[in-house]
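Subject: Sanity check before I submit

Could someone independently write out the structure tokens for this chain? I want to compare against mine line by line before I put it in a report. The sequence has 124 residues.
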Amino acid sequence: MSTRPPAQRRRHGHDIELLTARWLSERGLREIARNQHARGGEIDLIMRDGDTLVFVEVRYRRDCHHGSAVESVTPAKQRRIVQAARFYLARERLSCACRFDVVGVTGTPEALEFDWIRAAFDAF
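---
Independent answer below. Compare away.
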């Protein structure tokens, strides 16, 4: 667990999400929204990949000593993301192809590594 104060952790998380959005944009995705809160869940990034709406979970770890960032997206977390995505789609009155991606970010801001898992899980 981090010893940083909660406000500092939130800021760091925001910065990592911003860097991840830029990284994904450089790979052809277009940012739609960030930090969408919806009924028990949050979606870190919502992006477009062509006609597909992509809900992106961003996970950060300084190192992999306690497992990779991607491995930390548990089935319970997946359910909360799916629930939040359904709420977002209903609220925005959208009906389109969707995908759930996970981006694991490891390292320090000077040397980040991105592990992008497209279609990491399905809505269930």
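---
OP: Matches mine. For the report I'm noting this point. Strands lie at 30-38, 41-49, 52-61, 98-108, 111-121.
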